[in-house]
Specification:
mainly alpha; single chain
């Protein structure tokens, strides 16, 4: 009998015990399964999932077990771990050296592996948090709980064709590149500094293709979007909207908020050039729409993979295999 099983165990067969026993009071049908005691720390508090009753109108991909409390602990862990990773890396770089702030900044810019390495380590810590609080402490299937499912066949709309999403992502990258080229000072954003060295360009493109789509889609479209969509759907229902309107409202708001957060997360890399941040927010909205339309993170992942792959291919071609890079 699992923690979330509402069915009582099978009663013993009649006359199996010749000795009379005191009758036990019947289990109340409304009794809720016991929740394991908390360990007293925030992670244990966020990890324990109370029994939930989902609204019948919510689709399966929005029936999640985490809540605002889990999100608060996740964000706290994310900011704290990022700070610790960056401080630790800076300490290693400046160990036994007396560097001014300017010298330290130049040292960081000269070591692209520092920027890429700390980012990958931070991604790994975020994944570890989600795995521990969802899969280990709750016993849930990790990938399935975070929206990773197969594309459902739809011969009319072609939802199950993975190449459709991949090449759509490639086309989206071309559109953003054309639109971004019209933005003033678009070539002087911080992320372009990595393209001034062959090592930095290769590391950035490797992370962009093999790491970023998996991690960012799991967090944004697998973790954040269903939380926003389900919670705002419930809020709309409380204020009197019928089931269909509540679901449309929650889904639309979840798509917009998730897309905006996706753009803002990349703001520092873009030097807070708001035209570029707005373009990337639009990309995030399109990714999230694909996730909502298909009910699986796999669709947005393929879009993201195609998007980043096109950027990598055009970068390789434009620099002739990272041999003709802009001057430092």
């Amino acid at each position: 009998m699992s923690l979330f099983d509402d069915n009582p165990p099978n009663p013993p067969e009649p006359f199996s015990d010749p000795q009379p026993q005191a009758a036990e009071p019947p289990e109340s049908p409304s009794a809720e399964p016991a929740v394991p005691p908390l360990a007293g720390d925030p992670i244990s508090y966020a990890a324990v999932a109370p029994p939930r009753r989902f609204n019948a109108y919510l689709p399966e991909d929005l029936r999640i077990t985490w809540s605002w409390a889990h999100l608060f602990v996740f964000l706290s862990f994310g900011f704290g771990s990022l700070l610790i990773v960056q401080i630790g890396a800076l300490f290693l770089l400046s160990a036994n050296r007396h560097l001014s702030q300017r010298q330290l900044q130049q040292l960081i810019e000269s070591k692209p592996q520092f920027l890429v390495g700390t980012n990958v380590l931070w991604y790994a810590l975020l994944f570890l948090f989600l795995y521990m609080t969802l899969a280990v402490l709750r016993g849930l299937p990790f990938w399935g709980s975070l929206g990773w499912k197969r594309l459902k066949a739809d011969p009319i709309l072609g939802k199950a064709n993975p190449w459709m999403y991949f090449f759509s992502g490639c086309g989206l990258a071309v559109f953003v590149a054309i639109a971004g080229s019209r933005v003033k000072n678009a070539e002087h954003v911080p992320i372009q500094e990595l393209f001034k060295s062959r090592t930095g360009a290769m590391l950035l493109m490797t992370m962009a293709v093999f790491v970023a789509p998996l991690v960012e889609e799991t967090i944004f479209r697998g973790y954040l979007y269903p939380l926003f969509a389900s919670k705002f759907s419930g809020l709309a229902e409380i204020f009197g909207a019928d089931s269909a309107r509540a679901l449309r409202f929650g889904t639309a708001l979840g798509i917009i908020i998730t897309g905006l957060l996706f753009g803002l997360m990349h703001g520092a890399q873009l030097g807070w050039t708001w035209e570029l941040v707005a373009l990337l927010s639009l990309v995030g909205v399109i990714f999230t729409f694909a996730r909502a339309w298909t009910g699986t993170v796999l669709a947005s992942f393929l879009l993201h993979l195609g998007y980043n792959s096109m950027i990598a291919i055009t970068s390789i071609l434009a620099t002739k295999g990272f041999t003709h890079l802009p001057p430092r």
